[in-house]
């Protein structure tokens, strides 16, 4: 009887431990399942945000952001003002129209007189015209209109601007070394050295390349 009781006691203990173990395993599996679902949802959210950002940037493909013109200088017709001003500023033939689809000041309240004026957002009818303006602005280096420094930039989303800004230090180093480079959509830096062009998608990759130079 004593052996039977001990065996019964052992079975109870074993069964209890097994139940605890099974419960714990079930909890772990549930947590793992929730973690997997959370990771999946996170991945889907990141992908969705990336698609939205890409759509936003593609919708602005023909846009140029122009900084430096005094606030209100355009009057009631920004397109007319820019179509008359930019050809002379950038050295274009004034007989060739810029074909501006529309133009407006960037969103936001009108700044105070001592604050930085809002940018112009200009949308061209054709992408080549946009590239022509940006290329002319780069080649000219410094555009001055009635004592105001005028700058031209692609119209990009905030996220893409930040991604490109991460390359700023690397671009300065390449410039100091006289190495040719260019930024390509969405945020790829192409570097040409000794006749070979390489593409980098992160500033760390560019830093490693610069470090490898003699």
From TrEMBL:
Superkingdom to which the source organism belongs: Eukaryota
InterPro entries: Transposase_22
PANTHER family: L1 TRANSPOSABLE ELEMENT-RELATED
Name the UniProt record assigns to this protein: L1 transposable element RRM domain-containing protein
Species annotation: Latimeria chalumnae (Coelacanth)
């Amino acid at each position: 009887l004593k052996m039977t009781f001990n065996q019964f006691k052992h079975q109870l203990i074993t069964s209890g431990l097994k139940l605890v173990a099974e419960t714990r395993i079930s909890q772990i599996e549930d947590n793992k399942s929730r973690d997997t679902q959370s990771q999946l949802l996170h991945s889907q959210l990141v992908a969705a945000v990336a698609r939205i950002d890409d759509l936003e940037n593609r919708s602005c493909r023909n846009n140029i952001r122009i900084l430096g013109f005094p606030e209100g200088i355009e009057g009631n017709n920004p397109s007319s003002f820019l179509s008359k001003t930019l050809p002379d500023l950038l050295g274009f033939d004034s007989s060739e129209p810029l074909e501006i689809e529309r133009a407006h000041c960037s969103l936001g309240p009108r700044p105070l007189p001592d604050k930085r004026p809002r940018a112009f957002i200009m949308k061209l009818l054709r992408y080549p015209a946009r590239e022509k303006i940006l290329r002319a602005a780069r080649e000219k280096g410094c555009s001055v209109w009635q004592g105001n420094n005028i700058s031209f930039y692609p119209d990009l989303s905030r996220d893409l601007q930040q991604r490109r800004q991460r390359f700023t230090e690397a671009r300065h180093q390449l410039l100091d070394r006289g190495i040719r480079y260019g930024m390509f959509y969405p945020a790829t830096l192409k570097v040409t050295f000794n006749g070979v062009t390489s593409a980098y998608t992160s500033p760390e990759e560019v830093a490693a390349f610069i470090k490898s130079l003699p």
